[in-house]
Amino acid sequence: MGFTAEAVSANSTLVPDGENRAWDVWDCPPETIPNTVRAFELVFPTPELAVRPEQRPTKDWKNVVYIEAAPPGKLTVVTLFVTRGRIDLSHESEPSFWLACLDLGNGYYAQLVAHSDDEGDLPNTIEERIADARETAEKSGETLSDEAYAYFFGQNPGGVRYIFGARLDRPDR
Length: 173
Hints:
This protein is of the alpha+beta class.
C-alpha cells in the first residue's frame, strides 16, 4: 500500500523527499491450512459500525449484501484467502458466508469469506490507535468533528494484515 506517483506530485507533503511511496509491501504469510493463505482481513467490530439505517437510502443500497453484525465478544471479518486450487472455504467453528471467488490464473484463486471471530485484544488495540490519532490531531492543531471516523492498518502476529475502522469520538470515551 502506498501513494500513487500522481498523488505525490499533486501533494508533495504526502511523502518526504527520498522516501518510498510504498508504506507497506505485502509479504505472503505462511499457509494457515494446506494450500490456503489468509492474505488480508477487513475487520468490523460491532461497536464501531457507523452506517446507520437512515444513512442507507433504499435506492442506493438495493444491491448490497448485508452481513449480520457479530454478537458481543465477537467481530465480523471479511477474509481474503489466496488458495492453490478451488477449495470450498468456511470458518471451522463460526458461522461463515462465502462471498466470491476469482480465478487468478496458474491454479490460484482469491476467495472472500465473511465470518465471525473472537475479538481477542482488538478492543484494546482500537483504544490505543484512537488515542494516538487524537493526540496526533491535537498536536497538529486539528479539531476532530463529533462524527470523525478513521481507518487503521495493522498486522497480526501471524503476519496477516488487516484494516478496521473506528469512531474517534464516541459518547462512551
